[in-house]
Every structure is written in C-alpha cells, then in structure tokens.
Amino acid sequence: MANDVRTHYELYPYPRYPLLASVRRCDTYALNLTAVWTRFNGALPPPEAQRILIAGCGSFSPYPFALANPDAAITALDLSERSLRRARLHCLLHGRTNVTYRQGDLLDAPLTGGPFGLIDAYGVLHHLDDPLAGLTALAGRLAPGGVVRLMVYSRYARREEEAIRRAFRLVGITDPAAARRLMARAKPGSRLRRFAETSDEASFDSGLADALLHPRVRTFRVAGLLDLVRQSGLEPLLFAHHGAREDVGEEVERLTALEAARRSPGNFILYAGRNVAGPCPVDRGSLVMLNPCLSRAVTPFALGTVHIAPRLGIANPVLTGPERALLRGLRHPRPWDDLSPACRALLPACRTALFLLQFRG
User: Fold this and answer.
1) What are residue 344's phi and psi, to 5 degrees?
2) Rounded (to 5) percent helix, strand, coil in the chain
3) Measured distance CA(37)–CA(276) in Å, rounded
4) Is the pLDDT of residue 39 over 80?
5) Reported confidence tier of residue 17, pLDDT bands at 50, 70, 90
6) Each residue's pLDDT tens digit, 47-68
7) Which of 43, 130, 148, 311 minimizes the number of CB atoms within 10 Å of its CB?
8) Distance (Å, rounded) from C-alpha 79 to C-alpha 16?
9) Cα distance between the two ends of the chain
10) pTM (2 decimals)?
11) What is the pLDDT of residue 303?
12) How many whole angstroms separate alpha carbon 259 and alpha carbon 264?
C-alpha cells in the first residue's frame, strides 16, 4: 500500500501553493521548537534536542518550519520525490537552507536519524497501513522530553468525503477530470454537490485527489486516537483543533459527547510527548521570554494592531501598541520577579497562546 500512496503523491503533490507564496514569520509561532519544548517541559531544549523531523512533509511544510526555526537542523521526509522537489524549491526561493530532504518510508530508521526534539506528523497516520507501527517508530525517534504534533481525520468530520471517496472507488473513478464530470452533473443538495460548492479542495486537482481519490484513508474516534497514542508509548499533552479545551481530560469528555451525537469539531490535532517534564510550576524564580517568531511583530515599526492567526485552537490575544511595547522587553529572557505588574497581567493569556515562554531559571 505504501507504493500506492507514493504513486498518488507523485501524480498529485499536495498541497499546491504557488512557489512565491510567503508566510509571515509570526504566523509560524506554533512551529517553533523552542516554544513547543518549553511549553511542555518548563525548560529550554538542550542542544541534542535541537532537531526537527517533518514526517510526510508534502510539498510545502518544510518552508514554514524552516522559517520558524532558522537555527535548527530539520529533516523533511516524504514518500514522493516530486513533493520533495517542490518543497526544496519553495525553501530555496525563500532563502531557507537548513532542511535536509529524504525520500522514503517513516518506518525506515536510517533515513531519518534522530533523536528529535519535535516531530510533525500532520495528516500522515490516517494514510498508513499500520498507524500504530508508524507512530511507534516516530516515538522511538523522540529525544526524552520530545513532542510530536499529530493531525488525523475525525470519523464524523470526514463522513461526507469518505462516503464520496468510497463510492468513487466502487465505480472506478480514479482521476480528477472524471470526478469533475460527475460533480458537474450532481443533483443540488447531494453530497457531491455540497462538496463541490463548499470545499476549497475542489478547486484544484491535487486537493480534489487528496480529498476524494486517495488510495488509503482511515478515520478515528477520539478514544481510538488516544489508544493509539498510549500504545505507542506517548502521553497526550494538548489538543489544538478549533475550540479545544486546554485540559486533555475535559476535551476528551467534550469530544466523546459530540461523537455520541455523531458530530465533530473538525479533524483532531494533538500534541503528544515522551517523558516530558511538564510546564514551569511556579512564577517566582522563573524566566520569561518572547516566542522568537514574534520578534518582528512587536517592533515599534509595526503600525496599528497586530493580529496573528490562531494555531492552537483558541483565539489569540490581539497585540495593540501598549502590549507590543511590553512584549518587546521580553525578546531576551527576563526574571519573572523583575516584571512589571502590567507584564505579569499579560503573561497568562500570552503563555497559553504560546506567545510567551516561561521556564525554570
């Protein structure tokens, strides 16, 4: 089946962003290794953990990861050589050179090396023959304290697309042109017409192929996802899909209730870790610093209010001029004990949003 998946992405590299499409560095704040590590360990990452693996990187992810982590060693792994070529070109066009590209299967340990402080497996496990073997392999490449970000399809968020995908496979629809001909004839109100009218993926071939023509797709309920995570030797740390509660137990209860009603907030995004130390437990004696990705966003030259797109499932603080002035003073670590009352008041929301990092002194 890995060969079928490889063939699929050689034909339809995904996603298909224009090569000149750029990203603001501030919008990559949730991809920063130092920020993610500090959130879950209450300390800065040690030198041996300053490595990132993007497992199933596709044609775009290496660029925002390299932008977020200019000093980290990044390995981008994918089955598809065509996807890797496009990812490499996108990075080069934007001056990002700290990425090593590897073609192959994530089960092939020599390809990836390690250990890694951060592994990204966004939209990968649900395309594997054996998701447990895949996640176990990734868990084995984490440094102690390392974190993996997962995105998998939710059973109920994906219900419409899965019904169409299975129907297409039954009738032998295997290419976007044939799919579009059927979509053009679909009755108003039908699943296929709704998909054609509402999905961004329907507007380009690789998106349509990824959504409806993929040879290997599975979906998850939240209980199955947590079983997978725990069987792989990892600990669930934080859900980050839209509307997620910060407490894992509370979010599992919410998701379970939604699933009982055959509903979902969308696909699941989950951070999981291996032997993490936990967040910084106390304020006194700790150090606080700005997420490195936000340094330009808080300069005096940023006019008006700065809005940063949410990446952790919660609304981000809006950065007005006075707030940016406070954050500018935290571009380098400062003792919590030395912070002004206004800065301390800003800390809880900005720490939750990953704008500020707090760690043991």
Assistant:
1) -65, -35
2) 45, 15, 40
3) 9
4) yes
5) very high
6) 999 999 999 999 999 999 999 9
7) 130
8) 17
9) 49
10) 0.96
11) 75
12) 6
In angstroms, the CA 188 to CA 186 distance is 7
Token code pair at residue 146 = 């390392």
How confident is the model over 209-223, as pLDDT tens digits?
999 999 999 999 999
User: CB neighbours of 136 closer than 8 A, spacing ≥ 6?
Assistant: 231, 232, 233
Q: What is the CATH number of domain 2-155+217-273?
A: 3.40.50.150
Q: Where are the beta strands (DSSP E) in the chain?
A: 51-55, 73-78, 99-103, 116-122, 142-152, 235-239, 268-273, 286-290, 334-335, 356-360
- 54 bridge partner residues: 76, 120
Sign of CA dihedral 111, 83, 70, 304: negative
The pLDDT, as a whole number, for residue 111 is 74
Torsion of CA 197, 203, 209, 211, to 10 degrees: -40
The ranges assigned to domains in the chain are: 2-155+217-273, 163-202, 286-360
